[in-house]
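Narrative of accomplishments. A recurring question from our advisory board has been how the design workflow behaves on a single, concrete structure rather than in aggregate. To address it, we present the structure tokens for one chain from the evaluation set, followed by the sequence designed for it. No filtering or post-editing was applied between the two.
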């Protein structure tokens, strides 16, 4: 009986050992958390893509017509950013439109970066308009509305198997969000406590439904950025990445950007240029006034040309490359697809066509290769 027991114990231990080896091998083969990457985020904000498609716009690469997402994939773009408005007056940037397009992006193999505006329209440092559905809210009930809305949005994406890898809680929230409730006047504003509560109300739901999703806190510009993130750290707002908008005609030259990024690297968090762009020409392709159209808006060493645009993006990568090579960093080019789409004489179409990564024949510019790395 004693010998039999020893043999039995030995057999059990042997089986457990084999099982452990097998399970260990299986565990090693599991895919890594897609919310954490060590390669650069090579992103485009393609929020206008559904609108362009509705107008029958087609895009080309080497003069060959092909799907927009295929062109992006061919050149190494790995992430697509899409904005979401709460209750827009049209279908543009609505939950239905964003769900549909996000699913296409995921199916095509891209990571999904969601830009939650928490407004029915554009939100930026100059305006953070409360959604019409929340006009009657109190400070307390607004927190509940943000929580429920965020939960519903994430639940919808989860049902479509297209949860985002990255989410912004608000767009360019330099002066807070959901005005006037969450408005910030300065770094000493006591309303930072409420702004933090708004951020946390959303983040708590995101992390419950999608724990691997990374939270981006998005600031527009360079001036004040270090102080802003210092305050956010002091307030212990639970964000994962620093997101910066950088447009040289508004925010300064590349030296200014480099100084800012060097400062922000002190936070030991990944940094992404959440929005940027540069012109490939100062000409126009419709009669809508362009945002950039004069030479004094350019960087001195970078002309408005296809090469100048490409060199601008190359310069950004050199600046963004962190000292810690395991630290995530990235660039997201804003509206590269927002070409002239209503005809050559339209005055209410794209003010951005000379800033796109597609020329006036909708052919991919060399800048897309600089952004995607190939």
């Amino acid at each position: 009986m004693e010998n039999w027991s020893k043999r039995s114990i030995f057999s059990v231990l042997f089986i457990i050992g084999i099982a452990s080896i097998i399970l260990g091998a299986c565990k090693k083969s599991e895919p890594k958390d897609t919310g954490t990457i060590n390669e650069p985020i090579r992103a485009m904000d393609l929020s206008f893509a559904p609108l362009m498609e509705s107008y029958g716009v087609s895009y080309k690469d080497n003069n060959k017509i092909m799907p927009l997402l295929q062109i992006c994939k061919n050149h190494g773009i790995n992430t697509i950013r899409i904005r979401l408005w709460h209750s827009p007056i049209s279908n543009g940037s609505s939950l239905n439109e964003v769900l549909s397009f996000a699913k296409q992006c995921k199916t095509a193999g891209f990571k999904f970066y969601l830009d939650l505006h928490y407004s029915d329209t554009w939100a930026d440092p100059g305006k953070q308009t409360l959604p019409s559905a929340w006009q009657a809210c109190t400070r307390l009930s607004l927190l509940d509305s943000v929580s429920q809305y965020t939960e519903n949005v994430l639940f919808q994406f989860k049902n479509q198997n297209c949860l985002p890898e990255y989410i912004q809680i608000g767009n360019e929230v330099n002066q807070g969000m959901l005005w006037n409730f969450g408005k910030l006047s300065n770094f000493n504003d006591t309303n930072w406590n409420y702004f933090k509560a708004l951020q946390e109300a959303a983040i708590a739901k995101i992390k419950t439904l999608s724990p691997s999703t990374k939270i981006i806190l998005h600031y527009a510009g360079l001036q004040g950025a270090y102080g802003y993130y210092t305050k956010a750290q002091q307030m212990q707002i639970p964000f994962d990445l620093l997101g910066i908008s950088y447009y040289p005609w508004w925010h300064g030259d590349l030296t200014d950007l480099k100084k800012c990024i060097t400062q922000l690297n002190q936070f030991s968090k990944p940094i992404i240029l959440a929005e940027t762009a540069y012109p490939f020409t100062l000409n126009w392709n419709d009669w809508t006034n362009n945002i950039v159209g004069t030479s004094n808006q350019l960087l001195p060493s970078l002309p408005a040309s296809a090469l100048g645009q490409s060199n601008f993006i190359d310069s950004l990568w050199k600046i963004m490359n962190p000292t810690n090579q395991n630290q995530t960093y990235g660039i997201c080019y804003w509206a590269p697809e927002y070409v002239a789409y209503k005809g050559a004489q339209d005055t209410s179409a794209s003010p951005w066509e000379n800033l796109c990564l597609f020329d006036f024949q909708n052919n991919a510019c060399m800048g897309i290769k600089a952004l995607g790395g190939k």
